[in-house]
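Handover notes (outgoing to incoming on-call)

Open items:
1. DUF2017 domain-containing protein: sequence verified, structure written out, both below. Nothing else pending on this one.
2. Nothing else urgent.
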Amino acid sequence: MNVERSTDGGLTAWFAPVEVELLRLATSQLVDLLSGANDDNDLAISDPAIRRMLPDAYSDDPEAAKEFRRFTAGGLLESKIENAALVRDALANVQGVDDLLPSQTESPRTGDTDSHELVVIDEPAVLSWLRALTDLRLTLAERLQMSPDGEIQLDGEEAEFLNDLYDWLGMVQESFIYAIDV
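DUF2017 domain-containing protein structure tokens:
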């Protein structure tokens, strides 16, 4: 994966096809999770990943926290759904190198033209991508039963895959941040 800031303030990212599919699947699942929580208040309260994305405003006053959540959760969930859907939809329209003009097919840093797909993110969408990546990582951290110090409590093959995905999403997020900070 290679990420560069474009002249219009957006980002140009080159992903391997498997990375595009992985991001597409992860953001689709995030949209489903958030939409389900938006439709079902009990799910929003009971799912630890949703609670992690919508932490209590008043940790020492459960009644005030419940009231605050009642007025804010819907709007926050809608915003999170929009961010994840924007990423998912952008990935549905990714151009493979075969779809591009010869002058567009070379990845700027690697020169690789065979195994990458171009994702163009305009400036207004960059923050949506960063927010969706954060929500994906928060969800994975909760599914991994990650402690505040980064210790993973979940065992097994699923844990290894989820941890690799968590780390990779962190790398993508970091690449985006470095690119926009130039």
